[in-house]
Amino acid sequence: MAETHSLQDMRQQAAVAAKVFIQRDYTNGTVCQFQTKFPSELETRIDKQQFEETVRTLNNLYAEAEKLGSQSYIEGCLACLTAYTVFLCMETHYEKVLKKIAKFIQEQNDKIYAPRGLLLTDPIERGLRVIEVTIFEDRSLTR
Amino acid sequence: MKNCEYQQIDPRTLVVSPSSAQKHTEKEAERPRRKWEVFPGKNRFFCGGRIMLARQSGVLPLTLGLIVFTCGLFFGFDCSFLVEHLTVFIPMIAAVLFLFVVISLLWTSFTDPGILPRATPDEAADIEKQINTSGSSTYRPPPRTKEILINQQVVKLKYCFTCKMFRPPRTSHCSLCDNCVERFDHHCPWVGNCVGKRNYRFFYSFIISLSFLTSFIFGCVITHITLRSQICKSLVQAIQESPASVVELVVCFFSIWSILGLSGFHTYLVASNLTTNEDIKGSWSSKRGADESGNPYSHSNIITNCCATLCGPMPPSLIDRRGFVPPDEAIPAASASEIELPLFTAKNDAHMVG
């Protein structure tokens, strides 16, 4: 249990026991937010606080990406004036934040989730619908 | 059994090198396929998945043809007279407007409108499980709908049988394209694509600039004929000297009504943060007769609504057209990005769907 499993070790050899899906939270409209409710299937694997912290950070990052602020307005107006051709050459603010999110998820997986036999899938790979948490069979536990 | 069943493996052997990946995938399929090639919806892809259209391109060629034809006639026949008698700015303004119209049209037609990828089998199974074991409450909504609260307003989410998921709010399934589209406005045959979250601003730019262009050309052609008839002292002779102008007048006259009407309608929609779909269905029509239209997505004022819809952040495409299909379905999709496959761009570009 104390051994650190690398992500690739796990994927190559461990079997998938279950998958949990964290759904979107629409109480504030169509902005991308995920429910922070702790799923019961993860109770034995990870600390509730830790998990909620991860989801909350993700929610904050997505809120930052979709924020209606001066930066997004400037980007939008510039795009309109150039007949949107800037989208061909420039990376949008949203895409920059998505890269940050991908890095954050990778970090979380490496440091927190992989050692516990869990794997977070980046929501963008699921069309921003769900956060997929894959639970691997933990064969090191006494059965 | 306390000992781990797996042994420590040298990480270097786990790195999937391009050559071994190539051999591995070539065993299973001829070559690694990009996601656009296996896309389940009715769309057509070009340039290796970079450009996409609906299956029925509708009257997009007609739209483009009419615009180019009318502007061509204008530049060819009217501009010389107008430059001579008025100002050189006329063709310049027309050229700028024309470019803006064509570019907006192409952006609208070729951009992913906000298609939601279909649910993976695991997700679909999970949702089915939740529907079947949904708790008993006093009022049981019909199956396949879910009620949620958005900004203190009850909104019903419907289950999409094709995409196997509960549609997010403001999402609708387009039967022509067979896709769920976010913030679905309508499927525009003139543009040959759905108008949704990602390409609404392009569509709006297109109709606004087209309104300006048609009005401008209409005005200029009327001026041209008027000036010419003053010179020849006869309207009939003026028309005989410049027959192309009559063609332009007819085209512009008939388009102006519809285009201006559409622009006005969409300006209203933008200002109240509504979609054509919601407006037609009357989803948020004021039932209470109060000032608030009951639209839970509307911001407090018109300016914010306009800015949010037109100048808001550009959401990314969710369907990842140019990504590679994971070779083994059992491997979680997150690992697909770590297996670096060489780009078979030359081969892929030659393959076009539809």
Automatic annotation (TrEMBL), chain A:
GO terms for biological process: Golgi to plasma membrane protein transport; protein targeting to membrane. It is found in: Golgi apparatus membrane. GO terms for cellular component: Golgi membrane; Golgi stack; palmitoyltransferase complex. It comes from the Eukaryota. The keyword Ribosomal protein does not apply. Residues 20-132 form the Golgin subfamily A member 7/ERF4 domain. It is a lipid-anchor. May be involved in protein transport from Golgi to cell surface. The ZDHHC9-GOLGA7 complex is a palmitoyltransferase specific for HRAS and NRAS. This is Golgin subfamily A member 7. It comes from Solea senegalensis.
From TrEMBL, chain B:
InterPro entries: Palmitoyltrfase_DHHC, PFA4/ZDH16/20/ERF2-like. Coiled coil: none annotated. It holds the Pfam family DHHC. It catalyses: L-cysteinyl-[protein] + hexadecanoyl-CoA = S-hexadecanoyl-L-cysteinyl-[protein] + CoA. The chain crosses the membrane at residues 59-77, 89-108, 202-227, 247-271. GO terms for molecular function: protein-cysteine S-palmitoyltransferase activity. It is found in: Membrane. Residues 156-281 form the Palmitoyltransferase DHHC domain. Belongs to the DHHC palmitoyltransferase family. This is Palmitoyltransferase. It comes from Solea senegalensis (Senegalese sole).
